[in-house]
Hints:
By secondary structure, this protein is of the alpha/beta class. The chain contains eight helices and seven strands, in the order βαβαααβααβαβββα.
Amino acid sequence: MIGYCFCGSFCTVPRSIKILRSLAAEGNQILPIMNESVYTTDTRFGKAEDTIRTVEEICGNRVLHTIVETEPIGPSVVLDMLVISPCTGNTLAKLASGITDSPVTMAAKAQLRCNRPVVIALASNDALSSNLKNIGQLLNRKNIYFVPMHQDDPEKKPYSLVCDFDMLKKTMTNAFSGRQVMPIF
């Protein structure tokens, strides 16, 4: 089973859902997880209730959205892999610092404590500034794999990085074998 987490990079959620749909169509069992912001916030990119309904229909499972619900991942709820797509700079910083105060960071902690892979599909406007050190820290951690990323708008957003969502599946396949897809940038 794949745990599939959503964080609040709302403009990239539709791209992530497209990959989620493809994974489900291939017959993968998927456990959806959302941070509170995605679960409760309506934005110009869509309503929270529509996102929840779409994800639950694709996965055939209820969205987990609390720390209490995600804590059993690892010892009780065994996931072959955890995907965080999109992963915000905020969640990235928390993962690098060992902060567990959201459903997604709890799911990642629970997955890593059992020595299982976590794939990060980053979408962050500050990835090349305050979050660059966190990318570096996590690149050196066992069982953490990054989807290759690029600057999405170097002129208007010079510190922003967004993953190549089309590389998510390849990153997952490589992570199962303990390999990071290269190049990352």
